[in-house]
Every structure is written in structure tokens, then in C-alpha cells.
Amino acid sequence: MNYLTQIQGHTLWRPGLSAQAIVVDLGANRGEFSRQIISTYGCKSYAFEANPVLAERIVGTNNLTVFNYAVAREHGKLRFRIAANDEESTIERDPTMVSPDIIEVQSVHLEKFLQSQSLPRIDVLKMDIEGAEIEVLESCSDEFLIHIGQASIEFHDFLGMTPPEAIDRTVKRFNSLGFTCIKIWQHAWGDALFINTKYFPRSLPQILWAKYLTRNLWGIQRVVSRSLSRPQYASTK
Length: 237
Description:
By secondary structure, the protein is an alpha/beta fold. Helix content is 30%, strand content 27%.
């Protein structure tokens, strides 16, 4: 059995997905992740997107609630840079930077905001917030994190935005809270899954199957796919 699945490039623990699942989608972009997980499993998703243009284009439904907020270390206002590639838009760290691409957006503290929504639990936390994931996680309490079923996080070390020591500290924290970590990429943390063993007890064979067999098989498939997609040039002899 394959215990892992991928939705829009984010790896998830399949046994934790069902129509009863509550999903929190941080960095929703155009809403593809939320729409696909709702379509596949019939669950509910709460999607957060800081870019007001993108957030407005995500159509809310009974199963999809959209918030035009940046998730950050605290409630307030933030400077947000709109990149040409909207998947790379991020919080502007330089307060002196002046650009027409920089706008002010409303920010919310994840734990406090979700508590105000009275969610009974969080089954899936997906994070793709362009380098802000460390500060958001560090602003959350252990008590909040241990009630998350699984977290699929795109750390941005592969873009030089997130220091390796910060990721190492975060992984150790999740481990200390009872999560099992599965790193999908071999050389970076662009797709990391944290499974809460309190909610999803797993056997050693299940974890080994997911961590090594499935992950390595996906890696081989990516290599083959890239190889086949390269242009083939006819011989000029």
C-alpha cells in the first residue's frame, strides 16, 4: 500500500485524509491545492492568501473559506512584494525598499486567528509561504502544534531564504512533540511531511515503506520524466 500521496507538489499522509478532515492552506496562491484536496476527499479547507488579486480569484464554497491575510508572527500590517511569478511573492524584509510592487497587507498570527475561528482541530496544515514558515511556526505554542494531525511544509532553503540551522531546529521540535518527519527531496527541504503519531499511530514498516520505498520511487520517476522531456536532436551525419 502507498501511504503517501501528493497534491500540487505537497506530500500528505493518506490515512489522515477523509471527508471529515479540516485543512488549513497557508499560501493558497490560486487555490489549486485547496480545490484538489476538496475534490478528492470532500473535506473542508481554510485558505490564506496575502496577495489580494489572487485571493479575490479564489471562489469560496461551502467547503472552502478564503482569507486575504498574510500569516506572520503577529497581527498587524506587513509590506508584501508582488513578484512577476506570483508563486514567489513574499513579505518584504527591507523597510527602506520603495517599489510599486510592494503593497501593505493585513497579517494575522496563525494560532490566535484559528482559535478565533473555533476550529475543532486541524487535520492537515499545508505551508508554502515563501520563507516565512520558520517565524510562523516559532510563534506558535507546543500546545497548538500537538493538535495538528499532519503538516506538509515547503521550507525555502533551496532558494537561500531559510538557514539550514533554522530548519534543523524546527525538525527537532516537531520530533520532540511526537511527530515523524519524512523528507521527500534528497538535497533540500522543499517538501517535508510531519505526521503526528498521536493521531495516526504507524508501524515501523509503514514509515520505512513511505520514507524510503515511496520517496525513492518518486525520485526515480522525476528523473525519468525530466529525461524524457528533454528535446531530442536528430543526428546531422
